[in-house]
Amino acid sequence: MKIRYDENGVHLFNRNTGANLLIDELSVPHDKWSNAPRHVSFALTNICDLKCAYCYAPKDRSELEFEDLKNWITEIDLGGSLGVGFGGGEPTLYPRLAELCNFATVNTDLAVSFTTHGHRITAAMCEQLKGNVHFIRVSVDGLGSTYEKLRGRSFDTLLGQIQLIKAIAPFGINYVLNADTIPDLIQVANFWEQQGATELLILPEIDAKGMFSADILLRLKQFLDGYTGKLPLRINENCANGLPIAQPFNDTNPLLAYAFVDARGMLKRTSYQTGGMDITGKSLIQGLELIKSQSEQLINHK
C-alpha cells in the first residue's frame, strides 16, 4: 500500500488492485506534502513502426538513457508518486523495457504501466513482463476496416496480440476521437467491454493549433449523455470542460498531479506542450520546482 500526502488529504493506493482511497477529511500540513506528481509519464523513445497521420510525437530516433530513468523513477517514488507510465513512440521498441519495468516493480512501490499499439509484443516479451507491469494501455482507433485504414495493421492480428497482453496485466483502450473514429464509438465501447478491457480512454484529436473540434466534442457529449454500458470511460482532462466527469482532486499546482518527460529528456507539464526543461542527468523534482518558480515569476511580473 502506497500512502501519499498532499493538499487533497491522505491518498492510499494499492498498485496490485488499482484501489484508491482519498481521505479528504484529513488536513495535511504543507511541509508534509509529497513533492512529486501523482503520476509521471516517460516517452522512452520516439521510434515507432506505425505512421498514424494524427500522431503528434516527434519523428526522430531520440531515446532516454536507462540510468537517468532509474534515477528519476527512484526519485519520484521517494517523493510520493503513485504511478509511472512508459510511452513513446512505441515503448516496446525500447531495448530495455522489460528490465526497466522489473526495476520499477522490484525497487519502488509505483504502479507500472505502458501504452502500446500492441503489435510488437512477443511471447518471450510477455514472459519477461509478467509480474512487472500493473496496467497496459493499448492504442486502438476504430474497429475492423476503420482500424486497418488508420493504423495500417490487421485488426484480426491485433486481437491475437490482445491475448498476449491479457496474460501480462489488465488492459485498457486508448481511443483517438476524430471524424474517422467517432462513428464507431458506441460499437467500440461495447466490443472492448466484451473483450475484457477495464476502461476506455477517449482522446479527442488535437489539431496543429492545439485545438479540439467543437463538433467532435458535441458528439462526444451526446454519446456520454446516452451511454449505458458498463465499461468505465475516461476522457482527456484538457477537453473535459462541460463534460460529465468525476474529479476528486483540487490541485492548486498542476505539476503535482502529472508531469511528462519526452524522449529528449525535456520535462513538461503535458505531452502536448512544446519546449520544456532539459533534465538529462539532473533531478526531476528540482526541475519541477524550477518550472513552478519560473511560472510564479511570470505571473508576478504581469
Automatic annotation (TrEMBL):
Q: Where is the Radical SAM core domain?
A: 34-244
Q: Does the keyword S-adenosyl-L-methionine apply?
A: yes
| GO terms assigned for molecular function | catalytic activity; iron-sulfur cluster binding; metal ion binding
- One family from Pfam that matches here is Radical_SAM
List the SUPFAM superfamilies hit by this protein, alphabetically.
Answer: Radical SAM enzymes (SSF102114)
Cofactor(s) the record lists: [4Fe-4S] cluster
Keywords of this entry: Iron, Iron-sulfur, Metal-binding, S-adenosyl-L-methionine
Record's superkingdom? Bacteria
Q: Does the keyword Cytoplasm apply?
A: no
This protein is called Radical SAM protein
Q: What is the lineage of its organism?
A: Bacteria, Pseudomonadati, Bacteroidota, Sphingobacteriia, Sphingobacteriales
